[in-house]
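Our collaborator T.R. sent over the components below with a one-line note: 'Predict the complex.' Nothing else. No constraints on interfaces, no templates requested, no preferences about which chain binds where. So this is a plain run: every listed entity goes in together, and whatever single assembly comes back becomes the starting point for the next discussion.
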Amino acid sequence: MAWRLRLVPEKTNIDFFRLQYVTFGTSVFAVLATFVLLATMGLNFGIDFKGGTTIRTESTQAVDVGAYREALGTLSLGDVSISEVFDPGFRADQHVAMVRISAREGEEAVTPEIINEVEAALKTVDPSITFPAVESVGPKVSGELIWSALLAVAAGATGILIYVWVRFEWQFAVGTVAALLHDVIVTVGVFSLFQFKFDLTIVAALLTILGYSVNDTVVIFDRLRENLTKYKQMPLLEMMNLTANETLSRTIMTATTTLIALTVLFIFGGDVIRGFVFAMLFGVVVGTYSTLYVAKNIVLFLGLDRDKPKKADKNEFANIDA
Amino acid sequence: MTPTSLWKRLLIIGLCVWGIVLAVPNLNYTNVEKHNDAAAAIEVAGGVAAPQQSADLARWPDWLPSSLMNLGLDLRGGAHLLAEVRLEDVYKDRMNALWPDIRDALRDQKDAVGTIRRQPSPDGVLRLAISNPDGLQKAVEVVTALSTPVTSLTGAGQRNFAVTVEGSDIVVQWSEAERAAMDDQTLKQSLEIIRRRVDEVGTREPTIQRQGADRILIQVPGIGSASDLKKLIGTTAKLTFHTVVRRTTDAGTEPGPRNVLLPSLDEPGAYYVLEEDPVVSGDELVDSQPAFDPNNSPAVNFRFDATGGRKFGDYTAENIGNLFAIVLDGEVISAPRIQSHIPGGSGIITGNFTVEESTQLAVLLRAGALPAEMTFLEERTIGPELGADSIRSGQIAAIIGMLCVAAYMIASYGWFGVMSVIGLGVNIVMLIGMMSAIGATLTLPGIAGIVLTMGMAVDANVLIYERIREELRAGMAPGRAIEMGFSRAFSAITDSNVTAIITAVIMFWIGSGPVRGFAVTLILGIITSMFTAVYLTRLIIELWMGSKKPKSIQV
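Returned assembly:
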């Protein structure tokens, strides 16, 4: 017997429903907590969604946030935030900061004069400073971007709902979509709780989480459908446990490879996409959890009509193992 | 296990080789890029190559594929603008252009309608007062007779403008259908003009797209900053010729109704009061070239089209001895005295130009004026150094990610892990090959997509291997277990990948810029990973089983 790395023993018999009230309760709580957080703290929207300007500065001298703020204080720019950026990939003499200026009330177009003033003011503090990236978004576009982002998530969820409904039973579709909305909402909750910057790339990350989470859930449902035709008499709860245990090794294995890739990206991928990678890292963890603890519970609550597992028989792939 | 038929084997291997060959140019990015640029330049020049171009051309052999992945703005550096076109400007300009026709038509009916005066009105609306109230009906008829049917599909049956009576005034307004037609026209024209101006500076692969009803997205890699880009496209180069009312040095002069006060370009402190409605405008230009005036200083030649030429000729014939202003973008370039009738519709603009300025002006005039002004809603500048940093960290992350996933797969599945890692390697190379072939744009989130694909691509292998393990535990013979593993896992693989593609397609459809790049990478990654995991790995395992014929296997 050759040696194999195994995170999950060959045969498991975990009862995923033993603590179902605790786990499901936690999920419901997390979703509700997100709504409370969104209502009270809101999200730290980036300029994509709020409008405004960000200027990335780079210098061979150390960043002095106080001096930067002082230099910009005389310009009456309104809300300005300055933060230093750290990354292990930076050279020893590479010091990076982000300056964010909120959009001004009633100002549609972006004014290059303000950007020039800011750049000039920062140059007086640190003559070696350069500006590798300057981005401005007007409030009009940013308002629309929020809507298209919400629309994207909604459209993604609907597409998945329809696909799973066609391929499985409607209860599976509801369970899948509930699980993936749970993942997306809780991830948004974490961004609100820690006030991480929420911009357009985070929406892309949320959509990827959607795809990952559904992938994970569907694999279990696929197996459940197979078992439904195999063991006609087994109680649903027992069968779900059997299915989850049978596929557990795969669930953990795939989550691990994905997490490995994402962790590497988080460490070495640079500061520009770190928020994006964080969202996906967190989403994969939550997605794996919801696959095991949310999706099945919902199907169990809804119950299955087991007398006629018709769709499974009609399915084009059901006979492939003959 | 049932062996794959020979033609299928050849097809699988052929596809892999094809994908790898397509990816090869990216290894030598700079040289291939120079080769491609040179090839394009030579084609433009009609097959004539400069020595430098021939040298660049030789940097990459012709018989190898030369498509590269496009690097997105966030990786190459460049500028991004989202502009909103002020469509109302055109309503106004066109209405002002309509006014002389209406005036002339009504003057012909002077006996019935009396004298005509243009009243103040909102932009894009014409309000007229006539001195003889009894002629109101006649005047409406005359003006209505000038309207033409709208030819667009949706506006069938509508006239281009509507004439109504409000009190004692006649109000002329564009119809709904005409506005829609004008909007479409304006946007198309703006796109075309922006494209020409950006192309004139010869930058690589700019993106110029219409977005929604009134927006234009412009992305130009390699340009210094968004303000440079704005300068390039925002210079309206609107050329008009006006009658000069008088010359003044007082900036506070009240120009009077239907007149405008404009500064002189060369003489500081000099102003001209001009009639607001131009005699001829730059729209009627057909050509303009840099030239030299008789004193050998740089100038710009221009030629009008037939109508413009006639108007210009008539005007010069009637106004010999009067001043005449050439106005560019709201500044008077020069105001020469008309010496003689100028037939034929061509002329020369002189001023204090440098050679560069006259060349630039000729280009701008030739490209035409933007029909309407633009407001910039979004602008982004990414420096090339930041892009280079991003590429470097992306590469490092991709290599380390690949090694870690490979190590983990081999630790988990032994020899089968090695075979899946071969599949994974081919998968990534094919992904790059496909992205190059379709000219997809690689963005920073796209690199993240590739690294993520590495993690998720092995999912199909994991599903298959776990299934094989189960079948082996159930006591199946190795060959049969592998076969069952592949076929039983297939349904789960399909379902999970189709749902992933659904979300990626939606991301592509709704997203923009970097998000789209990410979606493209994901979609292609899903396709290539399904291919390599299901077909290629199976083939490798099959070949291995065929040569070793193991009695038992350990997955």
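Summary for T.R.: The radius of gyration of chain A is 25 Å.
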